[in-house]
Amino acid sequence: MAKHVLLTREASKNKPWLDVLENAGFRVSAVPMIETRPHPCDEVLDEYDWIIFTSANTVRYFFEQQAVIPEKIKIAVIGEKTTEALALYGYSPHFQPSLFTTDVFIEEWLALAIVSQRIFLPKSNIARDEIAKRFAQAGHLVKENVIYETGFPEESINQLQSVMHSQPIDIAIFASPSAWRHFLKTYAGDIKSLKIASIGPVTTEAIKKSGFSVAYEPDNYTMQQICELLIEGEI
Q1: Tetrapyrrole biosynthesis uroporphyrinogen III synthase domain location, by residue (predicted)?
Q2: Residue 191 pLDDT class (50, 70, 90 cuts)
Q3: What's the whole-model pTM score?
Q4: pLDDT number for residue 100
Q5: Hey, which residues does 37 pair with through a beta bridge?
């Protein structure tokens, strides 16, 4: 019987990978463990030197509320998917790190040794504040502003139960600590019997702090590579 893989990202982000894994021979179910919604933001951008996008979601919700980025503002991003999202609005980043993690982003941007900058950082309501703290310590002025909220889609409780009854889950993929925590509260089966795939060190850390191990973790923190790891390891 084909291995049963569970995708837990937002509904819109699961479909491409569902097809990839199904074509590779897996049975795949998608049950979102997070959902996002916009949060009002009316920040005036003219006073800033940089804007930092930490995810494709920050790009999406920013441009839903702001038509353009002033030409004088430079753009920094974390991750290739963030860059791709930015391109949809006609922009390309002036800076992105060599590895798609917050720590590498911080170290490499600070290594530019730019004199005190005014930085706008759109974020979610649950995002960490490492960038703002580290940049402030280095003498930069950082304004964080929540532009979207992350929560749990209640309908996923019944969806997950239905999926579990159809066939036991063998592998579950997580791309955020929030998705993992929601799954932990919702899943009625034996989590230790699952193989867990994690995208990114922050997600892996959250999983391990809960007392569970990670079977698959890609080097470049993308869904593409996690799918490749699953296909190599399970088919």
Answers
A1: 20-226
A2: very high
A3: 0.79
A4: 79
A5: 149
How many of the other CB atoms lie within 10 Å of CB of 125? 13
Give the span between the Cα atoms of 76 and 92, in whole angstroms: 9
Q: Do domains 4-34+152-234 and 37-150 have the same CATH topology?
A: yes
Mean pLDDT, to the nearest integer, of 55-70? 92
Question: Could you report the per-residue pLDDT of 150-174, keeping only the tens digit for each?
Answer: 999 999 999 999 999 888 999 999 9
User: In the structure, what pLDDT confidence band is assigned to residue 201 with cuts at 50, 70 and 90?
Assistant: confident
Count Cβ atoms below 10 Å from residue 154 Cβ, excluding itself.
Answer: 9
CATH code given to domain 37-150: 3.40.50.10090
Question: Which two structure tokens, joined as six digits, stand for 103?
Answer: 């720590």
CA distances from 226 to 175, 215, 217 (A): 10, 11, 7
Strands 118-124 and 141-151 come out as parallel
Tell me phi and psi for residue 109, to 5 degrees: -70, -45
What would be the CATH architecture of the domain defined by 4-34+152-234?
A: 3-Layer(aba) Sandwich (3.40)
Domain boundaries in the chain?
4-34+152-234, 37-150
